[in-house]
Amino acid sequence: MERILVIGACGQLGSELTNELGRLFGNSNVIASDISQPVSAISDFTFEQLDVMNADRLNDIVKTHSITQIYHLAAILSAKGEENPKWAWNLNMTGLLNVLETAKENQLRIYWPSSIAVFGPSTPRANTPQDTVMDPNTVYGISKLAGERWCEYYHEKYGVDVRSLRYPGLIGYKSLPGGGTTDYAVDIYHKALRNEPFECFLSEDTYLPMMYMSDAIKATLDLMQAPADHIKVRSSYNVSAISFSPKEIVAAIQKEIPEFSASYEPDFRQAIADSWPDSIDDSVARNDWGWSPNYDLDKMTSDILENLPALLSEFEQA
Ligand code: AKB
Fold this sequence. Notes:
By secondary structure, this protein is an alpha/beta fold. Helices cover 42% and strands 15% of the residues. The chain has helices at 12-25, 55-64, 78-83, 85-106, 139-158, 184-193, 213-225, 246-254, 269-274, 283-289, 297-307, 312-317, and strands at 4-7, 30-34, 46-49, 69-72, 109-111, 114-115, 161-163, 165-167, 169-171, 198-200, 208-212, 237-238, 242-244, 262-264. Helix 1 (12-25) packs across helix 7. The model has no long low-confidence stretch (mean pLDDT 97).
């Protein structure tokens, strides 16, 4: 019987993953936690307020709820991290080390997301391989690369069953992301459905690897449920689904909302995007545990434009 703790359950990925874990394992076996107050999307779950920097509180929650697996999602993303680098480093690293330590003490399975932000300006941009040059130049990317090394270290030295994916930009419609460079590809749908023009903070030809939320959840759960001997990479796996530029997502939306328009005003996030790959080679994940995505740009766009309208008024009230 698995007992699962989600850290960062109020976030963009956390709220959807918590509900999916509840469907798989039963809501009573999933404990949601976050530094902030619980959001309505996770109201069906036991909630524990947790600052992951507080190792004692984390250990108490693990013991009280007989936790067997942790999904540690709390992190400061790329754009926000650049505003306060030391704070981002401290939170991203101390949080992960606290989780790895409690995993070691309590024999837990851990999921921790890495990111395409581990790559940098000298990394090959097209079809970036699993093993390649990594020279991140954002504090977020540096913390993710260091985190990958720590995950592999805890697996090699202490046998911790830690598993990780290098997420591309994640696009969902059920909640708003915060602080990422790829987040324009979420905001754009809100503008389109409100019949407002969109001003993009990246230039129109900036390609980035992206993934629809439902594929991200599938990748995460497939990885966590794969037999341990299939998991050959204990740093983090490349996973890929779609690559597109702002111009292409605008065109995909215009197929359904022809009057939608966008303009381009690149800001400091352009340099971050320019340091990341255009597309990712995920053949190692496909071979090791059978990864394959379901959504391309058009299919994702149709799904969002169909389902987001029912939620728009909730976002306005929030
Ligand atoms: C970000 O833009 O910071 C994140 C990421 C690619 O990890 N979405």
